[in-house]
Amino acid sequence: MLPATLITFTLVAVTAAQQNVFNTASSGCSTDVPVSCDENSGSCCVEYPGGLITQTQFWDTDVPDSPSDSWTIHGLWPDNCNGGFQENCDKSRDYKDITTLLTNAGLTDTLDFMNTYWISDDETNEKFWEHEWSTHGTCYSTLKPTCFSDYNTGDEAVLFFQTAVRVFQSLPTYQWLADAGITPDSDQTYTLEELTSALKQSSGVTPEFECSGKNINSIFWYFNLKGSLYDGQLVPIDAPESSIRGGNCASSGLKYPPKQSGSVRAGKDEF
Questions:
Q1: pLDDT block averages, 10 residues each, the chain of length 271
Q2: d(Cα 6, Cα 29) in Å, to the nearest integer?
Q3: How far apart are CA 137 and CA 94, in angstroms?
Q4: What is the pLDDT of residue 67?
Q5: Does 159 map to a domain?
Q6: How far is CA 87 from CA 50, 119, 198, 241, 268, in A?
């Protein structure tokens, strides 16, 4: 059986500081809307064409201040149901100050979390977040400004980042691997089946890994979506048989290397 947080991942618990954002952004979608990838047209209540929602995480071993006991966020991407993906869908909404948007929305806790678990390997965190929003976030059909009844500039980006954080928090990859006795080690090797089976045991679904040589360095968790991204339900599914994002790992001899000593801090993979 799947964990309850994965069966119905619904954004319902909000703080008083967040309430104004959610009042502004209520989708009004019926609970009877079809699940994404079951329809060939999109709306504010049916995500299309990017109805295959992909939560991707990094295992970067040489990034300063990367938590030693947690994977980190790469993004939350709307991949196409039939393969492929769109990018950079609305240049007019390429917001350049995500930090200010989140702060003004009262989401300083979310911002603090992102500065620990959504960190860049080659630029500032702010630039990384701006890239993820402009490249992927602008492509969600259910986040178009016309889908909001009382829209304020940036509302959709605020909800995108809050959703991305909550999805990541529901997927404690490090802890699930550790529960199966799989922890970072310089010498130990694994088969791909051992890694994916360990995660399926805890999550109920099979994710997809990406590797750099023999080292695992990314993971992809897949969902379909019922309703809007920000107040609908994410339905976990197995990784597609035809790889969209990862799938380049060898079948055996894979390593899960530790993060470099002296450049890491302890995180918390149970959020």
A1: 36 33 60 82 86 97 93 97 92 98 97 98 96 98 93 96 98 98 98 98 97 97 95 94 79 97 55 56
A2: 20
A3: 9
A4: 95
A5: yes
A6: 10, 21, 32, 23, 32
For residue 177, the domain's CATH number is 3.90.730.10
Amino acid in the structure at residue 229 = L
Q: Given this model, what pLDDT does residue 173 score? A: 99
CA distances from 7 to 188, 205, 265 (A): 33, 11, 32
Catalytic sites, residue numbers: 74, 132, 136
Bridging pattern class, strands 66-67 and 264-265:
parallel
Q: What's the predicted TM-score (pTM) here?
A: 0.88
- How many CB atoms neighbour CB 203 within 10 A? 19
Whether residue 117 lies inside any domain: the answer is: yes
Question: Which alpha helices (DSSP H) does the chain contain, by range?
Answer: 4-7, 16-24, 98-104, 108-117, 125-135, 155-169, 173-179, 192-203
Residue 5 tokens read as 């947080």
Cα separation, 11 vs 166, in Å, equals 8
N-to-C CA span, the chain: 21
Give the number of other CB atoms < 10 A from CB of residue 242: 7
Closest CA to 239 of 210, 215, 203, 205: 205
Is 106 contained in some domain?
A: yes
Please report whether residue 161 resides in a domain.
yes
Q: In the chain, how many domains are there?
A: 1
Q: Alpha carbon 106 to chain centroid distance?
A: 21
For the record, the structure tokens of 151 come out as 């829209």
Range of the domain at 213: 4-265
